[in-house]
Amino acid sequence: MVSVEAPIVVDSKLIIPSSQFTSEEMLRTLRNHYPGLESHRIDFEGQAGIEFDTAEIAPKDSTNLYVDLYFYMQNPEIPLENLCSRLDNYLPQNQTQTDAVSWARSLTNLDELTSAAGLFITGPVGIGKSHIAVGTAKEMILQGKKAAFFHPE
Fold first, then answer.
1. 148 Cβ contact partners less than 8 Å away, ≥ 6 residues apart
2. Roughly what angle, to the nearest 10 degrees, separates helices 95-108 and 129-142?
3. For 6-29, what is each residue's pLDDT tens digit?
4. N or C: which end of the chain has fewer CB within 10 A?
5. Distance between CA atoms of residues 53 and 43, nearest Å
């Protein structure tokens, strides 16, 4: 059995060599977020997997898709509504939410070698706490930094 922690990149394709991360709901979420994305179930070294063809999506979307898949493979417990969450697609509805995004962006700009920091967000259901936290972690991943995401039980 193949064990991977990140999608495998081959030309314009991203491969997840495990059906563990590829529910139909997850695939629908990705197709809705990335119009033109094609996916196919494949056999990868003896196990079921999925191949995403990124040839028909913008290069930035291809990068974002890789980070979305990587993050999901590391954090399969995140709600699928947050699968494609990023700081740049969060729409604050009030000043408190705008401030939370500003603090999150500040966190992503810290020098990992000299700073230790975190983000703790509380509030009622549905205000975007998970969206901001997931988006912050993904931005850090894009910058080559380490990020951990913890979802309360």
1. 137
2. 20
3. 888 888 899 988 777 778 899 999
4. C
5. 15
Phi-psi category of residue 42: left, alpha or beta, with phi > 0 → left and psi -120 to 50 → alpha: beta
pLDDT score recorded for residue 1: 43
Q: State which amino acid sits at residue 100.
A: A
Alpha-carbon distances, residue 125 vs 32, 33, 121, 130, 152 (angstroms) = 24, 23, 12, 10, 12
- Phi, psi at 18, each rounded to 5°: -165, 130
Q: Note the pTM of the prediction, 2 decimals.
A: 0.87
The tokens for 4 are 């991977």
The number of angstroms, rounded, from the C-alpha of 9 to the middle of its chain's C-alpha atoms is 16
Separation CA 117–CA 108 (nearest Å)? 10
